[in-house]
Amino acid sequence: MFAKAFRVKSNTAIKGSDRRKLRADVTAAFPTLGTDQVTELVPAKEELTIVKLYAHRGDAVTVYVSGGNPILFELEKNLYPTVYTLWSYPDLLPTFTTWPLVLEKLAGGADLMLPGLVVPPAGLPQVQKGDLCAVALVGNRAPVAVGVAAMSTSEMLTSGLKGRGLCVLHTYQDHLWRSGDKSSPPSMAPPLAVDPPDPSEEEASGQADCALPSGLSPPTLQGVEEEVRGRRQLCGEQTLSEAAEDPGVGGPNPDPADCKTLQEQMDELLQQCFLHALKSRVRKADLPLLTSTFLGSHVLSCCPEGRQLDIKKSSYKKLSKFLQHMQQEQILQVKELSKGVESIVAVDWKHPRITSFIIPEPSLTSQTVQEGSREQPYHPPDIKPLYCVPASMSLLFQESGHKKGSLLEGSEVRTLIIDYAKKNDLVDAENNNLVTLDPVLSDSILEKSEQHTVAKLPWDSLLTRCLERLQPAYQVTFPGREPVVRRGRICPIDIALAQRASNKKVTLVRNLEAYGLDPWAVAATLQQHCQASTTVTPAPGARDGLQVQIQGNQVHHLGRLLLEEYRLPRKYIQGLEKAPRPGKKK
What angle (nearest 5°) sits at the alpha carbon of residue 576, between those of residues 575 and 578? Predict the structure, then answer.
């Protein structure tokens, strides 16, 4: 459903009554969630917005966003969790398992077919047709897709695991996931049978197999287990039997962290990520900073590789309680700047806990991932104007070996024109600043009305007219990539102001993709700099282009981002003059 870009209709803050109704709907749709879990999912005071959008197929969808991430979406009065929510509640839905190579197909809009399922030792989860299900990958219990069962479990077995198993609605790496913080699935160990099978359990399993429909044998797991075992050996993982034989496993010196409770470990991880974010990511210019943005964009990104930060499993349970505790230690100051929305307004960077904190060095694996990811620092492209020889000027450049369609730089054009004039003795003998126009030059650069009246031109006028007659083109070179040549003139980044309901202004910026800028990343950066809501929508009149919309007149912040941080030349940006001018104080 979200394999292609969607169109946002509205983005509004949720009302108190709608928040209570959403809690009731979540409780009814997911009865396995407790009251505390529902309150954590739909918080009482933290910022929560309702985004109404149209999918690329025209389906009307309502998305609920908390902390910058979509947590739920509603389609035809049915409520579905996103992968961000399922990573916090992995057991919320019955989960089917598939191979990692299948994920690319699911993200492209395909449904999950039964031959792609991996049957675990415990068997397939019991579902009915139309039940909401999740999809995980082999080796990681974190769901990567949400869908609806196309048939019941018994029908899947009866069909011999052939046909469509799940109708997929939302996946990791689709456009709904991109509207959040684009975090990767956490590492969650799959439920494995660590104990050897009990004979009584085997007997019960044999009796259960007899209950299958007549003529149907239970699906064999031997091939699946051998393939999983083979993949683990390729990845350097040990099976349980190998780990038991390894003297280095389960030795007499256990890890001190294993002696701590899960809650104590989560408290330490939360404080580590908190101090790491304040010391390396948050700047004074970012304040005031929404607490939800602080968590989603700074704290969670400081979590070490291979670990998952879950505040609900800490002793604080909620971010607000943790920040209150940090405020008591005078590390920071939190205020409610608007009703129900808390922000960090001050940070004491000289506090002993911040100054003494040592930022952990990233692992080699994380360094490799960061080097190859899109989180690298942005470097502006090298843009070089070119000129294309049209048919009307092919005779002029024919002697120099260039024909129709040849691409030339401005300096090359000037050199070729000067060489042509000197080679054909067109320089005026009495005045070296004048050039006599021969028939080829006249046909190339003069208007029809001028061909019988203009016989000579100054050098500067001749060269200027020649460049104007050539067709424009440009070459774009991004760091580490091959140059790309395109015809025409490059479209500048266009900044515009628009009026919305209730006489509210919004700032629109488009054509970011031409300069190698990701609209989603720019929107996330502007949301932090401006402390205003941002959305990414299809640009009107553009086939595949996107535009970023920011609440209010944010041209000043946008100009600083493009000129100072991204270091783009001013000549490629239009609309900077629309920034609000400081008025006189009354």
Answer: 75
* Gap between the terminal Cα atoms of the chain: 53
Distance separating alpha carbons of residues 396 and 389, to the nearest angstrom: 9
**Coil vs helix vs strand at 71:** strand
Q: What is the Cα–Cα distance from 135 to 102, expressed in whole angstroms? A: 11
Sequence-separated (6 or more) residues with CB below 8 Å from residue 473: 385, 386, 387, 388, 407, 485, 486, 487, 488
pTM here? 0.40
Dihedral angle at the C-alpha atoms of 273, 277, 280, 286, nearest 10 degrees?
A: 180
Where are the extended beta strands (E) located within 253-391? 289-290, 332-338, 341-347, 382-388
Q: pLDDT band for 26, please (50, 70, 90 cuts).
A: very high
Report the relative pairing of strands 95-98 and 132-137 from DSSP bridges. parallel
Beta strands in 197-350 (DSSP E): 289-290, 332-338, 341-347
Tens digit of each residue's pLDDT (9 = 90 or more) over 531-568: 788 888 888 877 667 889 998 889 988 988 899 888 89
Residue 354 sits at φ, ψ, to 5 deg, of -80, -45
Dihedral (CA of 486, 492, 493, 498) sign = negative
Distance CA 97, CA 460 (A): 71
Per-residue pLDDT tens over the stretch 412-449 = 999 999 999 888 888 888 888 898 888 888 888 888 88
pLDDT digits (tens, 9 = 90+) for 147-199: 999 999 999 988 888 889 999 999 999 999 998 888 888 888 776 443 444 44
| Residue keyed to tokens 């050996």 | 233
